[in-house]
Design goal:
Largest sheet: 4 strands, antiparallel
CATH topology of the largest domain: PH-domain like
Order of helices and strands: HHEEEEEEEH
CATH class of the largest domain: Mainly Beta
CATH architecture of the largest domain: Roll
Radius of gyration: 22 Å
C-alpha cells in the first residue's frame, strides 16, 4: 500500500514538473492541465493521508461487548478503545441538552452521535459519525449497522444513560 502511495506521489511530482517546464503548444495545454490537476489531487490525497496518521486516525470500527474499538489498517494496530464503562452521563445539565447521548445533524447531511467519555481521569466529548477518520471517511457502507450496534450496546450495558429518542429509530430488532 505504501508503495502505491509512493508511486502516485512520484507521478504527481513528475507531472507537475513537466507542466511547469515544458514548452507546449495550445493543443497540449488541455492534456497537461488535466495531468496537472490529477497530479495535484493525488498529491493532496497523499498529503492528507500522511498528515492524518495520528492517534485518532482509524479505518475500521467494531462495536461489541467491550465497547467501541477503532483500528488503523495501515499501521496494523488498534488506535483507540472506548469501553462501555468509560461512557458517562453529560456534565451539562440544562433544558437544551436533556440527554446523555443525543443525535445532531451537521451541515454535510451526516448525523453525529454525541456523548461524553472518560479516559485517564479526563472528560472528553466525542462526536461520532461512524464514518471513519482518514483519507476516505465517506466510504463506510455500514454506518447504520454501527450506529445500531452502538445504541444496542448502550441499552444493554449502560441502562443508566439517557438516550435521545431520535436515536432509537436506528435500533433494529
Amino acid at each position: 500500500m505504501l508503495l502505491l502511495w509512493f508511486i502516485l506521489i512520484i507521478w504527481a511530482v513528475i507531472s507537475s514538473v513537466h507542466h511547469i517546464f515544458s514548452k507546449t503548444t495550445q493543443s497540449d495545454d488541455f492534456f497537461n492541465g488535466i495531468l496537472f490537476s490529477l497530479g495535484a489531487a493525488i498529491s493532496l490525497i497523499a498529503f492528507s493521508f500522511i498528515v492524518l496518521k495520528k492517534e485518532r486516525f482509524y479505518t475500521h470500527m467494531i462495536v461489541n461487548e467491550e465497547g467501541l474499538i477503532y483500528f488503523d489498517k495501515y499501521r496494523f494496530r488498534q488506535s483507540k478503545i472506548i469501553r462501555w464503562q468509560q461512557i458517562v452521563s453529560s456534565p451539562i445539565k440544562n433544558n437544551k441538552n436533556e440527554r446523555d447521548i443525543y443525535l445532531r445533524h451537521i451541515f454535510s447531511g451526516s448525523k453525529q452521535i454525541i456523548f461524553w467519555y472518560t479516559q485517564n481521569s479526563k472528560l472528553f466529548l466525542l462526536k461520532e459519525n461512524f464514518g471513519g477518520y482518514g483519507p476516505f471517511p465517506f466510504l463506510y457502507a455500514n454506518k447504520n449497522t454501527l450506529r445500531n450496534a452502538f445504541i444496542k450496546g448502550v441499552l444493554t450495558y449502560r441502562k443508566d444513560l439517557r438516550i435521545d429518542p431520535k436515536l432509537l429509530r436506528f435500533v433494529v430488532a
